[in-house]
């Protein structure tokens, strides 16, 4: 850095240091520990892994510690198809859910911008409100609706659309319904934020020049809303890959998503090193989308929006 | 002039119906006197009455509320400090990793956050329970607070602060007398949101909790796994009501802030 740092008072330093220290201690450090444990061996002990880092053992302990680390857990992940299938399943469900969310969320965000200003604020609140009730409750609400003798099947039977009540729960369809339902606000909000800033005169110019409405949408509106599409897609895709509650309560037992695999390795199998390795690989898979998201978010905050 | 076409109105109608009907169905069924889903036994408060006698559930609700209060308060203080550091202190050393640590938890899968927190607590051999959940929730929620308060600070007219400093106020006096009152609606709103986040969290709490600190979502989850029950409908309806009120209050506070001259952005 060439420009001299302005001198800061002790208090200013504290304002930076307190949240900084907190995040280092409770966000960064835990990740380093996960990384370390993913390189350890399972052990029947408390904590259930080895080697354990002993400060008291000094230099000797440090050397033993590094000698005890290995990549075995990662090799194990590659050999057992359970994990590979689980990662594939997660990526597949996340990609398809994000696409569904885009197709459903875009028309909603677009429609909100077509209403009067006062109504827009109300509609945005209406879209966000369900987000603040917990995932658990919203997924439970769908368990209610989708169960065998639940309201959906009753409705379908009464209307004569089906003769036999179809099975909804424990299927991928139910998982997709849950994903779209839970993540819709994450898609609609960024799309709305970009579409709302769209310069109306561009659309008028296109109309004046005789461009049909669908073509204006395709050539003007859609390209200009690309940042919103990207932000929405990232905000949905990243958490969906690691989703646990939705596939656990609505999905079937034949294939687990990766969030369930971490959970089961940890709680059911008590295999902490494998759970840590699964988590590290998941972070590696998500590192590109997360970096793109951060870049977008920081640029957004510096622009002042 | 912007105008909503019939297609736009239909989209909005269907979209809102999709978002709200499941919750409406849940609440309506919580008043069903019959235990069977397929049978409507008339309106009744029976399941709410049974909840009142469920001591374990009430205790969990109380624990969740206490955790949410403490975590939301801590997250609001830490998040506001972080926002001030990011917006007011320009380019200090290590700003980039700091900003990265603010944004990463927003999208990090909860399973990973929970697992990494737990492994930290095990590594430093802290007994898990009330306070470990508080720490985990504080860390997650402070990032949301930082982003919300930051967006308010960015819109802020800095000449007001400069005027106060020119008139001899110290930075602390300026912050307390000028900055804080103006960003207070955003701070209050983010407190509410942090509270709701903590109250709702299942995954992170499951990893970081210990004996004697079973939160409400953990208890609900263990029952919901077994299937739909009218008691659960009633619990969930109450939680929907609590969160609904909190969010409406928060958004009114944000509006109040907007009316004072700075546009509200969340």
What attributes does this structure have?
A: about 300 residues, mainly alpha, MetI-like fold, about 75% helix, about 0% strand, B: about 270 residues
SS summary, helix count of chain B: 11
Supply the CATH superfamily name of chain B. Answer: MetI-like
Oligomeric state, counting identical vs distinct chains: heterodimer
Q: How many strands, what sense, and barrel or not for the largest sheet of chain A?
A: 2 strands, antiparallel
The strand count of chain A comes to 2
Question: Can you give the mean pLDDT of chain B?
Answer: 85
Low-confidence runs of chain B: 261-266
Secondary-structure content class of chain A: mainly alpha
Helix content of chain A: over 70%
| Cα-atom radius of gyration of chain B | 22 Å
> Structural class, judged by helices and strands of chain B?
mainly alpha
Written as H for each helix and E for each strand, in order along the chain, the element string of chain A is HEEHHHHHHHHHHHHH
Q: Low-confidence parts of chain A lasting 5 or more residues at pLDDT below 50? A: 1-5
Please indicate the percent range of residues of chain A in DSSP E strands (runs of 2 or more). Answer: under 5%
Give the total of beta strands of chain B.
0
Radius of gyration of chain A: 25 Å
How would you portray this structure in words?
The complex is a heterodimer of chains A (305) and B (266). In chain A, helix 5 (117-132) runs antiparallel to helix 8 (172-196) and helix 11 runs antiparallel to helix 14. Chain A has 14 helices and 2 strands; from the N terminus they run H-E-E-H-H-H-H-H-H-H-H-H-H-H-H-H. In chain A, a hairpin with a 6-residue loop joins strand 1 (41-42) and strand 2. Chain A is mainly alpha-helical. Chain A has one domain: MetI-like (MetI-like fold). In chain A, 40% of the residues are buried. Chain A starts with 9 loop residues before the first helix and ends with a helix. Chain A has a two-stranded antiparallel sheet. Helices cover 74% and strands 1% of the residues of chain A. Chain B is mainly alpha-helical. Chain B has helices at residues 6-30, 46-52, 55-88, 95-107, 110-123, 130-155, 158-166, 171-200, 203-208, 216-224, 230-259. Chain B is globular. Chain B has one domain (53-259): Orthogonal Bundle (MetI-like fold), CATH 1.10.3720. In chain B, helix 3 packs across helix 10 (216-224), helix 6 packs across helix 8 and helix 7 (158-166) packs antiparallel against helix 8. Classes of the chains: A mainly alpha (305), B mainly alpha (266). At the A-B interface, helix 1, helix 4, helix 5, helix 6 and helix 11 of A face helix 1, helix 3, helix 4, helix 5 and helix 6 of B.
């Amino acid at each position: 850095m060439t420009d001299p740092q302005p001198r800061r008072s002790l208090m200013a330093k504290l304002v930076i240091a307190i949240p900084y220290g907190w995040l280092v201690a409770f966000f960064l450090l835990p990740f380093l520990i996960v990384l370390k444990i993913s390189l350890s061996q399972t052990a029947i002990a408390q904590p259930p892994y080895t080697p354990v880092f002993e400060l008291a053992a000094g230099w000797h302990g440090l050397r033993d510690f590094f000698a005890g680390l290995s990549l075995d857990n990662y090799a194990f992940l590659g050999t057992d198809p359970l994990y590979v299938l689980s990662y594939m399943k997660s990526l597949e469900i996340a990609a398809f859910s994000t696409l569904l969310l885009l197709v459903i969320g875009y028309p909603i965000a677009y429609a909100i911008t077509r209403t009067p200003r006062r109504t827009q604020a109300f509609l945005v609140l209406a879209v966000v409100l369900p987000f603040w009730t917990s995932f658990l409750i919203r997924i439970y609400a769908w368990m209610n609706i989708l169960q065998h003798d639940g309201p959906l099947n009753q409705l379908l039977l009464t209307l004569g659309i089906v003769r036999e009540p179809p099975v909804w729960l424990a299927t991928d369809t139910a998982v997709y319904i849950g994903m779209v339902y839970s993540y819709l606000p994450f898609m609609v909000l960024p799309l709305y934020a970009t579409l709302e800033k769209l310069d109306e005169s561009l659309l008028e110019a296109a109309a004046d020049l005789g461009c049909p409405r669908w073509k204006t949408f395709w050539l003007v509106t859609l390209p200009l809303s690309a940042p919103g599409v990207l932000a929405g897609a990232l905000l949905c895709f990243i958490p969906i890959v690691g989703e646990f509650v939705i596939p656990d309560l609505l999905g079937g037992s034949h294939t687990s998503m990766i969030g369930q695999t971490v959970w089961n390795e940890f709680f059911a199998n008590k295999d902490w090193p494998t759970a840590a390795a699964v988590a590290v690989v998941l972070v590696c898979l998500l590192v590109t989308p997360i970096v793109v998201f951060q870049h977008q978010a920081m640029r957004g905050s510096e622009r002042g929006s | 002039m912007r105008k909503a076409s019939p297609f736009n109105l239909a989209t909005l109608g269907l979209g809102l119906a999709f978002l709200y009907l499941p919750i409406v169905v849940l609440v309506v069924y919580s008043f069903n006197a019959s235990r069977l889903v397929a049978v409507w036994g008339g309106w009744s408060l029976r399941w709410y009455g049974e909840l009142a006698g469920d001591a374990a559930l009430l205790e969990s609700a109380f624990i969740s509320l206490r955790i949410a209060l403490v975590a939301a308060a801590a997250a609001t203080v830490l998040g506001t400090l972080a926002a001030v550091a990011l917006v007011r202190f320009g380019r200090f050393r290590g700003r980039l990793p700091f900003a990265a640590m603010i944004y990463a938890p927003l999208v990090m899968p909860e399973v990973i956050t929970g697992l990494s927190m737990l492994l930290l607590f095990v590594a430093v051999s802290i007994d898990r329970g009330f306070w470990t959940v508080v720490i985990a929730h504080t860390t997650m929620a402070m990032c949301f607070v930082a982003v919300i308060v930051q967006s308010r600070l960015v819109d802020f007219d800095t000449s007001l602060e400069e005027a106060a400093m020119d008139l001899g106020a110290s930075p602390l006096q300026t912050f307390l007398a000028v900055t804080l009152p103006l960003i207070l609606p955003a701070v209050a709103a983010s407190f509410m949101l942090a509270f709701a986040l903590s109250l709702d969290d299942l995954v992170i709490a499951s990893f970081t909790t210990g004996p004697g600190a079973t939160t409400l979502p953990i208890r609900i989850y263990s029952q919901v796994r077994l299937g739909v029950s009218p008691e659960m409908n009633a619990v969930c309806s109450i939680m929907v009501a609590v969160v609904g009120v909190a969010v409406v209050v928060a958004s009114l506070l944000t509006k109040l802030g907007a009316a004072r001259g700075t546009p509200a952005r969340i």
